[in-house]
């Protein structure tokens, strides 16, 4: 399996290869996967106060977000009422943050990633972090739609999302998040959702999980914040959980089937810590 890896906002291919390094090394040493990295086309400066947080410049975004910065939501999320579902939480931001976002900018970003996939015929899986995870989900939504409506074969057979967000789609003069209580399942390939229970944006990761095929979606809580875990314990646990999943998907791919793969109970939940319905995030039990 070969992963195309998409960094978060204010990231780069070079910096993301360092962030993901321990996990990639673990997987490569066991012959489970290889990794290639891409980045957005829009060079950006980090938000004020975060100048030294994101690593070496230049830094990039996939989305051409000329208005504001990507950390406005972080500043506002601290004042949210508790007990909301992930979908209800995202709706608090949708009107201000998405309805006026030009849909052609989203299309351009998706096309950028699609081009990277087309240029490497061995790519058959995606890893996305934060903005990169949202964009990966948006591309998977489009691939699934093209498969269902036009019979265009899907390239991507597995995706891992770190601190993800639900897919965006064009909606009139703006874009809209695909939320489970409105649209149901929109991504049916196997997916794995890695998040931290201390991430202030954890509701966004769960909202992405909720629109994926629940029989083929796994969850792992590393217990940290909005980041890619690099410590040996989390890397080992995550790698062990993914081993059988990747081996099985590869076997099904060799057999030439496009039937969605179902994860076992242990593959879905593994050894991580899991958020319960009572935590106000909904979508899965404890």
TrEMBL record:
SUPFAM superfamilies: alpha/beta-Hydrolases. GO terms for cellular component: cytoplasm; nucleus. InterPro entries: AB_hydrolase_fold (IPR029058), FSH-like_dom (IPR005645), LovG (IPR050593). It comes from the Eukaryota. Keywords: Hydrolase. One of its GO terms (molecular function) is hydrolase activity. Residues 2-237 form the Serine hydrolase domain. GO terms for biological process: secondary metabolic process. This is Serine hydrolase FSH. It comes from Pseudomassariella vexata.
